[in-house]
Structure formats: C-alpha cells, structure tokens
Design goal:
Blueprint (H helix, E strand, L loop, with lengths): L1 H20 L13 H19 E2 L2 E3 H4 L3 H13 L12 H17 L7 H10 L1 E4 L2 E4 H12 L28 H17 L5 E3 L4 E5 L1 H4 L1 H5 L5 H6 L4 H8 L4 E5 L7 E2 L1
Helix pairs in contact: 2-4, 4-5, 5-7
C-alpha cells in the first residue's frame, strides 16, 4: 500500500513537472518570414517598450500589460527563428542581454515572481524556452552568456525583476557599436555601485557592504583582476577607490531583496 502511494505521488510530481517545463518535448514551429527582420523588429520594439515602461529602473508592469501580447509574439517568433547565422561574435552580446531581460519581463507579466524561493526556482530554473535552436532555462541562459563572453559587467545589465538587481536600463543594448556597448556597461557598473541601497562604501570605518552579486559571481569579477577589490576600484564612487586598491576595506554582503522592482 505504501509503495502504491509512493508511486502515485511520484506520478503526480512528474505531471506537475511537465506543466512547469511547458511542453518539454515540443519544438517550436519554424518562423514564417525572415529571421533578420524579426531580430530587427524585436530590437526596435524592445527599445521602445523600455523607454515607455521603465523609469530610472522602476518598471511599470501594470502599464506594460497593454503591450504583453506584442512581447509574447516576439518570444514565440524568436523561439522559432533560425538565429544561429545572425548571432556570432562579440556583437551578439547586446541581443542576449536584451533577450534575457525581455524573457524575465515576459514571465513576470504572465504571473511569475522571484519574490519567494519556490517562485525563483520556477522562474529561473523550471521555466524553459527555445531560442537560437537551443533549449534554456534563465539560469542556463545566464551561464551561457557568462561563459561565451567573459564580460563581468553583464551582471549590471541583466535584470531579475527585483529591488536588489541592477536597474533595468531604459534603452536596449542591441545594435550598438562595441565602443557604445562598452560605455553602456560601464555606466551600468558605476550606477550600480553608487546605489546606496545595493552597495555601501565606508572608507572612514574601513568597511564595504556589497551586493550578494559580488559573492555569488566573485570568480567572474576576479577573472581579469587581481582581486574583487581591484575590480570594484575601477567603478566605485571616487572616495572608495584608493582604499579598495590598497585593500583597506573589509567586505561583507547585503542580504538580497527580492521584492518587485516595479508596480503592478
């Protein structure tokens, strides 16, 4: 009897898993039209939506619901478009950061939330989608971006719909020159480190209270720097730069606030 009950429970969990995974065995229907045209349209529409619904990092999700269908259409088209020939080299980084952010907004508008631990598991780990011929979760997509581009400043550009995340920028990253994209990422880094809610530097007391992003991804920031402090010194507010370089600030980490980064 106990064994039958256990089998029934496992079957129920498996069924729920398939619901969460959203059609694991179903591949998207090929896009009817030009992949380049869809990529260009996504870039234009995403940029316009960011300018309309994002203000200094605060997201008007309530207002964005009027554009939810358009965003869903882009997600469907990008799932089925053959993007591989169009996404090669450093120039594709802008697309991947925009796509990650758009996917998060899409899922939040569909009712998901990272505010609770189960919600984060579902949003970042269990929800899966096709793009450029591959199946990803958001966590897997972030891992791919980190691996393929080795650019630690992406952590200041991709957004997880929460207060402690770096601000969602009010313009897109796609289609920018390499110099412009570098400038945008540096601006994101400086803005994030200057935000006293997310990072606090106290040179006089010898302390730095940092976002947990620097704890979770420490190896990314140290990859091309001698230490985390050496990386931070490049973008931190001026009074903290020399103490960081000299190793005079003791670091601890601020608990992450997963509350929504906008209004519903």
């Amino acid at each position: 009897m106990k064994r039958l009950r256990a089998v029934a429970i496992l079957a129920l969990l498996a069924g729920l898993g398939l619901i969460y995974l959203g059609g694991w065995f179903t591949r998207p229907t090929p896009l009817q039209g030009s992949p380049q045209a869809e990529l260009d349209k996504f870039a234009r529409d995403w940029d316009a939506a960011l300018r309309r619904y994002v203000d200094h990092g605060r997201v008007n999700y309530a207002g964005w619901r009027s554009g939810q269908a358009e965003l869903s259409t882009h997600m469907q088209n990008l799932e089925s478009a053959d993007l591989k020939p169009l996404l090669s080299g450093p120039s594709s980084l802008g697309f991947w950061m925009d796509y990650y952010n758009a996917r998060v907004v899409h899922e939040v508008l569909a009712g998901q939330s990272p505010q609770s631990a189960p919600g984060r598991t579902r949003l970042f780990g269990l929800t899966r989608f096709y793009v450029a011929g591959q199946r990803f979760s958001l966590t897997e997509l972030e891992t791919m971006i980190r691996r393929d581009f080795s650019e630690p400043k992406i952590h200041f550009a991709i957004n997880c719909a929460s207060l402690s995340c770096p601000a969602l920028r009010s313009e897109s990253y796609q289609g920018r020159s390499q110099d412009k994209l570098d400038q945008m990422l540096e601006e994101q880094a400086r803005e994030f480190l200057a935000d006293g809610f997310k990072n606090q530097f106290e040179p006089k007391s010898g302390k730095a209270h940092l976002s947990q992003i620097f704890q979770w991804y420490k190896s990314d920031f140290e990859k091309n720097n001698s230490s985390l402090s050496a990386f931070l010194a490049q973008y931190a507010p001026p009074p903290a730069r020399q103490p960081l370089l000299e190793g005079h600030l003791t670091v601890d980490f601020i608990p992450y606030d997963w509350s929504p980064n906008g209004t519903f």
